[in-house]
Amino acid sequence: MPKNNPVFANQLIEWYLDNKRAMPWRETKNPYFIWLSEIILQQTRVAQGLPYYLAFTEAYPTVQQLAAAPQEDILKLWQGLGYYSRARNLHAAAQMVVTDYNSIFPNNYRELLKLKGVGDYTASAIASICFDEPAAVVDGNVYRVLSRIFGIDTPINSSQGIKEFKKLASGLMDRDRPADFNQAIMEFGAIQCTPKNPYCLHCVFNDRCVALQKSRIHELPVKINKTKVKKRYLNYIFIKTASGDTVLQQRTGKGIWQGLYEFPFIEAKGPLGEDRFRESVKSQNLLPNVIEMDITRYNDTPIVHKLSHQHLYTTFWIVDVAEIDRETIPVHSIRNYPVPVLIANFIEKNID
C-alpha cells in the first residue's frame, strides 16, 4: 500500500490548482459556511446544491440565526434537495454549536464528530479546510479515484474497505497542505475521474492507473449488497372545497419526509381505478361526512418518484366537495408549507 508518496500528492494538488472550479465556499475558511456546503453537497451535485447554499447563507448568515429559525422554515428552504434528515440534522447541529460551544464551531476532527449529522467525511473536510488538521476525506469521489489508480477491488461499503481506503488516503495526504489535498482529490473525482466516461486520455495519472492499464475502469470501485428497491403505489388526494380550501397533513414519526406536509393519500398494492379509489376513500373515512364528491384522476400513468430504497408510483386525484369535516387551509396559502418535491411539482402546475 503506497504511503507518504509526495509525488502523488504534488501532482494531484498541481492539477487542482490549474483546474478547480470557482465555488463560493472555496473563498472562505469560515467553518459555518464550509459545514453548510458539505451538508448540502452530500448526495447532491454541485450544480443543484449551489443555489441552496446561496439561499441558506443569505437567509441565515450566522449559525446563531440558523439555530434560532423554526424547523419548518428550514425544511421549506431545503425543499427539492431530498434526504430531508440532512435538513433536520443541520438545524440540530446549529443548536448544538450555539448551546454547547458558545456559538463557536469546534476546531478539531474529534469535536466536530459530536455534532448531529456530522460523520467522518464531513468532520475531516471541515477540520482540514478550516483548521489545517491532516484528516483525510473519503467520499464517493475519493473511493473511485483511489480504487482505479491503485487497482483496489475491496468493496467500498464493507468495513474492511472503509478502513483500507481511509488508511490509503491518510498515507497519501500532503500533511503540510491537507486542505488543498482533500479538495484536490474530491475535485479530481468530480470532474476528471468521473463515474462514466472519465477523461483518461488527459489524466495526469494515466501512466500508472491500474484500472486503465487493465481495462477495469467501469468495474471499479466495487460495491456489494445493493439494497433491493421496494415499489409503493400512492394515491394523493387534492381536495378542493367550494370555499377554496384544501387539506394538508404533516408527516410525523420517523421517515425521510418527517416534518413535511402532503395531501391525504391511499396506499395500495397496485394502481387503482376510479371505483376502487372511491371505495377506499369511503372505507378509510378520508372525507368524513362527505356524501357527494366529484373525482378527477389527474394523471393516467403513475408518476414514478425514485428514492434511494423505494420507487413511488404516484397518482394524483382531484376531489371537489362542497365542504369537509376536517381541518383545512386556503388553497392560495399552500406554497407556504414545506412539501416533498413530488407534491411541489403538482402544486407548481396546478395551483396559481
UniProtKB/TrEMBL annotation:
Its EC number is 3.2.2.31. GO terms for biological process: base-excision repair; mismatch repair. One of its GO terms (molecular function) is adenine/guanine mispair binding. It holds the Pfam family HhH-GPD. It is an enzyme of class 3 (hydrolase). Binds 1 [4Fe-4S] cluster. Residues 40-191 form the HhH-GPD domain. Its cofactor is [4Fe-4S] cluster. Keywords: 4Fe-4S, DNA damage, DNA repair, Glycosidase, Hydrolase, Iron, Iron-sulfur, Metal-binding. It catalyses: Hydrolyzes free adenine bases from 7,8-dihydro-8-oxoguanine:adenine mismatched double-stranded DNA, leaving an apurinic site. InterPro entries: A/G_AdeGlyc_MutY, DNA_glycosylase, HhH-GPD_domain, HhH_base_excis_C, HhH_motif, MIG/MutY, MutY_C, NUDIX_hydrolase-like_dom_sf. PANTHER family: ADENINE DNA GLYCOSYLASE (PTHR42944:SF1). Belongs to the Nth/MutY family. NCBIfam families: mutY. Adenine glycosylase active on G-A mispairs. MutY also corrects error-prone DNA synthesis past GO lesions which are due to the oxidatively damaged form of guanine: 7,8-dihydro-8-oxoguanine (8-oxo-dGTP). This is Adenine DNA glycosylase. The lineage of its organism: Bacteria, Pseudomonadati, Bacteroidota, Flavobacteriia, Flavobacteriales.
